[in-house]
Structure formats: structure tokens, C-alpha cells
Amino acid sequence: MRRELRAEWTKVRTAPGTAWLPVAAVALTVAVSAAATALVSCPSAGCRYDAPKVGLSGIQAGQAIIVILAVLSVGAEYGTGMIHTTLVAMPRRTAVLAAKATILTALTSAAGTVAVLGCVLAGRLVLPRNGFIPARGYPLLSLADGPTFRAAAGSVLYLVLIGLFALGVATTVRDSATAVGLVFGLLYVLSVLPYLISDPGWGRFLWRISPMNAGLAIQSTRHLAALPLGPWAGLGVLAGWAAGALLTGGLLFRLRDA
Amino acid sequence: MTFAYGARSFARLSRAEWTKFRTVRGWVLGMVAAVLVTVGLGLFAASGSHSSCGGPDDVCPAVPIGPDGQAVDDKFFFVHRALNGDGSITVRVTSLTGRIRLPDVTPGVRREVPRVEPWAKAGVIVKDGTRQGAAYAALMVTGRHGVRLQHDFVHDTAGGRSGVSETAPRWLRLVRSGGELTGYESADGRRWAKVGTARPQGLPATVRIGLFAACPGDLTVTQADLGGAIAASRFAQATAVFDHVSLQGEMSGGAWRHDDIGAAKEPDGAIHHPGGVVRTGGTFTVTGVGDIAPRTDGQTIEKTLSGLLAGLIVVVVVAVVFVTAEYRRGLIRTTLLAGPRRGRTLTAKAVVIAAVTFAAGLIAAGVTVPLGAHVLRANGNDILPVGPLTELRVVAGTAALLAVTAVLALALGTVVRRGTVAITGAIALVVLPRVLATTSVLPVEASRWLLRVTPAAGFAIQQSIPAYPQVTAFFSPQAGYYPLSPWAGFAVSCGYAALALALAVLALRRRDA
């Protein structure tokens, strides 16, 4: 496994395209979060916003870059034919996929941690100016606060799981373009559908199985009772999607010719 | 080079691109998938939307239909007489007051405050009988929007901006001459200013003429826990005092009559929130609840197109791959050898992908909208009716939006030459703003901004019911009310596609393939 890990790390490190993707993910996440915190405001009459969730809303955009990173880590090999070389050098296919997943997890958690810290910092700086003050029930965003820490750390986990999910899908379909389309469809379209269906029963059901809605429940710190799923259960749904995609991809990777 | 030769060579290039498209199985299957996913998700969403009105027999009251065919609210207190032929009514309004119910603090304890709703309205009206939805013209004072002349539910002309108070009464006069009604207002009953002229549809010789009062429910908008906002409407009523009532013309049918038009009945037969009139000498005090306005809440035909977002993603993937596959396989060199005028070659590609996606979109929307509307109606939902031209605009506009998005994606693919990046870019530009505007915690203003400046502005082409400025309602992007008018929004999307295509031609000309 060490050989595979080293080979995959060398690939990621030296490919010109993938090197800047984690940086882009951090920049996009923090920028969108900062914009969202600058746009919301809490009037003196009070408001119902979930401040940590607003501060972390950039994750919804930043995850797109993580998806690209994950999809390219396997899709690009199929696109260029590099996969043949890879499998000649390292015939243990499960180990190859595990190495790819490990490297991706390491990269995503590093980028995710930096991005989340940036978001919390932006929230600390901007939110109090827009009326999110202790007098209206909004203390300064702080990782020492239990629910806020859960939201922040959970967001990093969320990004990791999104990356693994995309990796599994890309391994299954073996084409970057199709994989990216499929993952975005499952993430974004499935996340709007509950809002477009007026039947509340179906709406809540779709909300529960949607990887993005359920997964982002981990960011909620208020009105938890109104959520169709609890924070950890929601992240569990996303973990289920990731596991399913990775298992399918891994099985097909072993069974099919490259 | 002559024009005919140029046209012929362009036709040849387009044909070559069309041959490429139709012979790659994955792309054709992609288009079929785009159609199927749009139709399938749309019908699924429609079949999941049930509506019922409760009550013993679970029959919803029929929604009144206005003279132009749209669903309307027509609920007000009407004090009226019959007028044959031409004539006029003149009144002095000395006060307009109201009551509004506030959200309960202690459950079950009603809190009402004296306050006038901004669109509370009272004045003089000429109507084709007392049937809900009948043609009318009304001259009125409003809570906060001055004097207005409105007719047939959707038409609104602003008069003077000043309201009514004890010290500053307002005189109103509505003159009927054939099919035309002219409104005048005055501060003292001597010097009159013309407000405007209205021509209600098909007004018969004998009409009902008189006084009215109405008041739309008071609107509060709160932040929803799962994102977006919730609008709630609460009871509000308006009371106006009229004196110096004078009628000119041939009156028939005896004395004044009064009706609570469109009043809702309780199970025991009593009227829910009744209006009323008190007459003392020449003074009429009229109280009304409800509104005379086009209806803006309810299902719309474009609600059936919820699967379009998924269809859009498939179209983006196919359009991007239509060009990036050429780079990956080196086919681009052959293509440019056969069509060395690169701008022309790329334009031919854009024309082919636009035509294919437009056709696919036309099939998808053409099936989904009528079928989805049928399913929604069968599930007890009221769909706000629209004319055939609007329905055509929604269907063809949806197809055109797909085509424009495909061109944008193709251009992005040409510029960046990497499928994944181009697909992500196109989705981030077109799909993501719509998703954020619908589901996120973003405040309404930010959602509107997103739908104004991004290529997602083109979704406005699907809006079938306009946001009327004279109607009290929460016109949110979530409910399908876009910040730009349908064609303006579509033009924004077209602008982005044209810009991207121009950049792509430039990039293709400058770079080695």
C-alpha cells in the first residue's frame, strides 16, 4: 500500500491542473461565505437566522471544486489512457483505489480545514456588524461553542464525504464529464426538488435522501427539531451515498477491463 | 467570396457537425436522457402535489375568472343601484380606517390593532352585475397609494398621491359614457382633475353602480428554518365614510341594495368576517374585507417544469463534450483542416447544438406542461390559468433557454478545453444561482440579485403570472416570481452566451489546436 500511496501522491503533486484545485476550493468557499455573511442582516426586532450555517454557506459552492478534484483523480487517467500504465505498475486494483481515496481524503481535509477556519474568521468579523450581536441572541462565532464546533468540524467531514462520493461515481462511469454531470445532478438538483414539490410528505422524504440537504444538516445549530433529520443522521445519509458509490466503483474497477 | 458561396460552405459545415452529433451514440442518448429526466421529474413532482379544501364533501370553491381569463380575487362589500345607459356617480370620502389582526402572542387570544393596510381600498365602482369575476371599473382611495383607477382586475392607473383624512376629504367621480369610464378626483368638489379612462370588457347597457370597500389580508414574511421565507396573510378590514353621494342618469330597480360579494360562509351558514354598511341620512359607512385583484398564489403551469434543472445539467455535459471530445481525440485538427475558417466552424457547431437542444427542449416542455398541468388538476390543485400565447412562451422559452445554455457550455468548453472545468463552470453559472435562490438561507434581496446578473436570469422566461405592483403579495423568487421580466431575463442569458461564443471564437483563432 505504501508504494501505491507514494505513486498517487506523486501524481497529484506533479499534475499542473490538480495542484491549484485545493487552493481554489478554499478561496471559493471563503469568498462565498464572506459574501453571504455580508448580505444577511439581523434587525433589532430579532431574526431566525442560524449564524454558523450562514457563515459556512460557502461550502455549498466550494464542494464543486472538491468534486472536480475527486473526479479528475480517476477520470483523467481514463481520459489520457494513463490508467493502463498505472495498472501495469500496480496490479492490485483495490490498493490503487484505496490509495487514491486516502490521498483525496488527506487533501480534502487539509483544504476543508483551512476553508472552514477562513469562514469562521469571516463570520466573526462580518456578522456582528450586520446586527448579529449577543443582545439579539447571537454571540460571536467561536469554535469553543459546542454546536458551532460540530458545524465547523462537520463541514470538513462533509467535504471529505463529497470527495469520496464523487470518486466512487467517477470510478463507476470512467468518464470525467459524465461523472461531473452526474454528481452535480445528484447534489444540486436533488437538493432543490423538495422545495419544488408541494406535498410535504414527499418533500421531507426527498430532503432526507438528498446527499446535499441531509449532509448539510450537520451545519445546523438552531431549530433542530424542525429538521427532517438530525445533524449526525444527515451526515450519515451522505456517508451512505459515499460508501455506496465507492463500493460500486471499487467492485466494477476490479471486475472490468480498464 | 460571394454570399451564396459563403452560405453554401456554412451549410456544409453545419451538416458535417450534425453528422458528428447524430453518429455518436452517447450524445444522442444524452439528449434523450435530458428529455426523459425533465418529463419524468416534472410528472413525479406533479403527482406528488395534492391539494384539498377540507370540509364535509371536500369540494374546493371555484376560483372566479376575470374578463381576460385569469384567476381573480373578487371579494368586497358592494352598495349599489342599477344604471341604464350613461350616467355618473359622485361622492366625498371623509375617512378610510382599518383594523389588522396581529400574530397571536398567547394562543387563541385575538390581537387586533387599528391600522390601515397600504392597499386597503374604498370608492365608487361600476360593475357588470354582482357576479364574481364580472367586468368593472373602480375609482378608489387606498391606504397608502393615493387615488387609483382600476378596471378588470389587472389594470391600474395612479391618480393623486394624497390620501384621505377628516381635515382633507377626497371627492371622487366616475362617469360612464358608452363602454368608457372616466375617473376624476377633487379636493373640494369644485376643481376636478382627470385620473384616467378605463374600458372594461363587454359592459352591458344596464350596470350596477355604487360604493365599495375592500381590504387585502395583511402580509408578514418570516425567515423559514430550512431556508427561504414564509409569507403569511392575516385578516384585515377597511372602513370608509362617504357623503354627498349623488347619482346622475337613468336609475332603475328602486332603492340601494347591498351585497357582501364573495363572502366565505362558516359551516353554520354565518358569514366569515362579514362586511357591512351603516346609513345615517346622506352618510354611508361601508366596511369591507377581501380584495378585487388578480390572484397570484396557487400552482402555475411552469411548476411542472421542476425537472428542467436536471435536464439542463445533461444538456451542459453533452454540449461541453461535443467540443472537448474533439480535443481529446485530436479530431479538432481534422475539423479545422476541413473548415479552416475557425469562427465559422465553431458557429456551425453552436448552431447544431442549439438546434438539437431546442428540439429536445420543445419535446420535453411540450409534453410536461400540458400533462403535468392535467395531473396537478386531477390532484385537486387549482392552476392559475393563462392564455395560449403565454403557454407557448413558457414551452418555447424553456426550449430556448436549454439551447442558449448549450451554446454557453459549448463556448466554455472551447475556451478551457477541459470537460470537467467547463461543465462545472456552466453549472455554476446557470444552475447554481437558481438552486441558491430557491433553497438557501440567502435573503430575498440577494436571491433577486443573483437572478438578475447571472445567466440564470433566463429562467424568467418561464414565469406565467406577472408580479403585479398593485397586489399585496410576497413575490419571491422561491414562489417563481423573477426580478426581471420574461424577455429581459432571457436577454441576459443570451448576452452571456453571445459573449462566451465571441471569446471562444477569439481563443480558437489565436491558439494552435
What does this structure look like?
- Chain A is mainly alpha-helical and 258 residues long.
- Chain A has helices at 2-14, 16-19, 21-39, 51-55, 59-80, 82-89, 93-126, 146-173, 176-196, 200-209, 211-215, 231-255.
- Chain A has one domain (2-255).
- With 513 residues, chain B is α+β, with helices and mostly antiparallel strands.
- Chain B folds into two domains: 7-49 and 299-510, no CATH class; 72-294, Jelly Rolls, CATH 2.60.120.
- Helices cover 38% and strands 27% of the residues of chain B.
- Chain B is built from nine helices and 17 strands.
- Chain B has helices at residues 3-23, 25-47, 308-329, 331-338, 342-378, 388-416, 419-439, 444-453, 486-510; strands spanning 72-74, 76-102, 111-114, 121-127, 136-142, 147-151, 155-158, 170-177, 180-186, 193-198, 206-214, 218-223, 229-234, 236-261, 276-280, 283-288, 292-294.
- In chain B, strands 2, 3, 4, 5, 6, 7, 8, 9, 10, 11, 14, 15 and 16 form a 13-stranded antiparallel sheet that branches. In chain B, strands 1-17 form a two-stranded antiparallel ribbon.
- In chain B, helix 2 (25-47) packs antiparallel against helix 3 (308-329), helix 3 (308-329) runs parallel beside helix 6 and helix 7 (419-439) packs antiparallel against helix 8.
- Chain B is elongated, with a radius of gyration of 29 Å.
- Chain B starts with a helix and ends with a helix.
- In chain B, 50% of the residues are buried.
- The mean pLDDT of chain B is 89.
- At the A-B interface, helix 5 and helix 9 of A face helix 3 and helix 7 of B.
